[in-house]
Amino acid sequence: MRLLLVEDDILLGRGLVAGLSQGGFATDWVQDGEDAEVALETADYDAVVLDLGLPRLDGLSLLRRRRTARDRTPVLVLTARDTIADRISGLDAGGDDYLIKPFDLAELQARLRALIRRSKGVAAPVLVSGRVTLDPAGRNVTLDGLPVSLSNREFAILHDLMQSSGRVLTRQQLEERVYGWSEEIESNTIEVHIHNLRRKLFPEVIRTLRGVGYMVPSSP
Fold it and tell me: pTM of the entire structure?
């Protein structure tokens, strides 16, 4: 899952990037509204975590612009503005959720998972495909009820494929979903992770469409 974090507080931004990464989110971080707008125009994100008090372009103005441009990316407003009027303004401007600082990191991650599920039309919090079950909150995978040990990258790739079951994701899409801006990617990295997933689970869990990408079949 790939996030855009828009936060001008350096210490908080660094902490969120680290904390969200541990929760399985590949997080790109910008510190003002104009840079955020450029990022949203040039990359696809599963969700945005948006502060309101930003330099150059404030969060509410950015939010209104993106909704006017028909950008449907889920936005969680994360701010110290805690009055009822502030919350109403944030939601009416196009925010999908509103969380007050200070906050609990686990709650932020849970709210983001819920936003992303809803945006992708997935109601159940646990993903199931045949013999494989994946729990995003608990960050665990089972095969026929038995636990399977996956690396963080393997888990992220399997999660995105299962969340998009029945649809093909290209190698580039998978790279963009599980790696942030600052991370270097070898040319065969995704192929290696897919190979490992098939070895740890079973070959048919992920199908390859040659020259196109990868998919997890929809459950009947």
Answer: 0.79
